[in-house]
Amino acid sequence: MEFLFDLVANGLLVGLMYALVALGFVLIYKATSVINFAQGDLLMFAGYAAAVMTGGHGMPLWAMVLVLCAGMVALGFVLERGILRPMVGQPVVSVIMVTVGLGFVLQGLVTIIWGANTRELALPVRFEPYIVGPVFISPINLVAAVIAVLFLIAFGLFFTRSRLGVAMRAVADDQQASMVVGIKVPRVFALSWAIAGLAAAAGGIIWGNQIGVDTFLALVGLKVFPVVILGGLDSIGGAIIGGLLMGVIESLAAGYLDPLVGGGTKDFIPYVLMILVLFVRPYGFFGHETIERV
Amino acid sequence: MINRESGVFQTSYEGDMALYTLPLARNTTRVVVALLVLLPVPLIMANNEHLMSIATTIALAAIGAIGLNLLVGYTGQISIGQGAFMMVGGYTAAILSSRYGMPFWFGILAGGCTTALVGILFGIPSLRIKGLYLAIATLAAQLIIEWVINHVPWISGGAQSSIYVDNPALFGFEFNTEFRRYYLVLVVFLLAFFGAQNLVRSRIGRAFIAIRDRDIAAEIIGVNLFRYKLLAFAVSSFYAGVAGALWTYYLRIANYENFILAVSIEYLAMIIIGGLGSVLGAVFGAIFIKLFPIALDLTVVSISEGVFGVPYQDVANFLANMQLFLFGALIIFFLTVEPEGLARMWEHVKRYFRLWPYSY
């Protein structure tokens, strides 16, 4: 029973980190109907940049965070302008492939500039775990969770309270109607990529700290697909709940199934679950269902 | 005779139904096929196995790319699982040949059929979902198949996940040199190429295209979506399975590393750079994607050694990353500048010369 608690608690913490990455995905999909296969690579790029800034140049943490966030927002703008806007009206597979190509470019770029060695991204957090009853929680996980929660709350407020956030939701709902009421849709597209860049910056710092910074960091992007499918591709709340759920499921699978089959179920169960969800409820638990009939 | 058309006038039904209605197109095709058949002759004389292996690799990749283009380019069902489907074909053939002593042609057919069944299984979600969701479902198929093959010792043949097979042989004739294996691959490639060209102009091909252009409209005019979507998955996976099995016989080893997610993406890149919805485009794409890293290697190495005097070992790492970078950049370039790929460029060239030299 204690084992179970431990697994669930850690799963939830990891799940929040998944939710953070999923958020970038969902935002772009919701506003622009583009699925971003390069979200993991953006995250990796941010992680590398963060590791280089704190490692080699010895920048203080706050300065690093500021520079990184500004840089990633700028990168988001540039990407939208340069390669996503020409893709408007192209078939889905082309749009997917352009983000895949972007992923390759980013991976090649970071290794050419900064090398392929694994870097450490140190955060000033203590190492010994907190022990709450039967549950061991490592402080770094807790920090990651706090950052994730702060981020999610900030986004929640942005979307419900601010003018721009409401405009973004309007565009997600109906592009033509929002044009009619005077929202500049291209600007909203650019903004959603900028915010995705911001989410990638946060994800890059947290995940980079957890698993080390190298090109494998980009694989976090693959993990996010089950999360967003479970929650629904166009639901922000769904991304959060999907992330939490997937974290717990992964953690339980690693705890209970790994000893039976000899490891690695963590990389397998989420995708099986995803296929099942796609069979039964393709639009996820909270996604918007589009109905087409003859 | 180099005669050009001034309108297409056929006097028989046979002429009307021919794959290539123009004498020019027929003759060009014959010449190209003859050149492909004769290609090994100078290479045998020069005893250049390396160049031969490049040609074989391209032909192998083209089979897989044609299969993928039938699904993605013609039917509009996105698949990021081509590598995994090839893996199924490859391992099926390897298991049948190495453990049950089946001949290679049976291994290839069985590999194709098994993969077709697996393809149908993972194609079932396509009946309910499409576009992005289907892309993600096939991505899951890739990861699940990869995991299963790696974690079931009976399939993967133990820790290294690789199974060795003997040289393919037919009636005592063993395909034991690079040049002999080229002919084996070439025959299958030609069958695959002309098979696909015929398929896409048949009733089935028209149904595929109707589904791609608008599935609901296709259903209204009587195309059975259920049947044709699954058929598209089956045909495409069959091609993938055959390519995977051939790949295994060619390398004489089945190894999952030849069929990972990056390979699936490489095949998608082939059909996008070559041209979606074009059999010839898939071949162009295969040629381009397979030749590109080789050309890059040669240029970078000659520059670094000739101009800067840096030995190959020092640039090898840079080269790998540069390949990745340029590969991505090329995909982006083609998608934003020429979305219909090399096939469309080829059309432009043909159109120019059709009216040449009086292009008005």
Structural summary, described in words:
The complex is a heterodimer of chains A (about 290) and B (about 350). With about 290 residues, chain A is mainly alpha-helical. Chain A has helices at about 1-30, 40-55, 60-85, 90-115, 140-160, 165-175, 175-180, 185-210, 220-230, 235-260, 270-280, and strands at about 130, 135. Chain A has a two-stranded antiparallel sheet with strand order 1-2. Chain A is globular, with a radius of gyration of 19 Å. The model of chain A has no long low-confidence stretch (mean pLDDT about 85). Chain B has a single domain, classed as Orthogonal Bundle (ABC transporter involved in vitamin B12 uptake, BtuC), CATH 1.10.3470. Chain B contains 16 helices and 4 strands. A two-stranded antiparallel ribbon of chain B has the order 1-4. Chain B has a two-stranded antiparallel sheet with strand order 2-3. In chain B, a hairpin with a 2-residue loop joins strand 2 and strand 3. Chain B is globular, with a radius of gyration of 21 Å. The interface of A and B includes residues 225 and 267 of A.
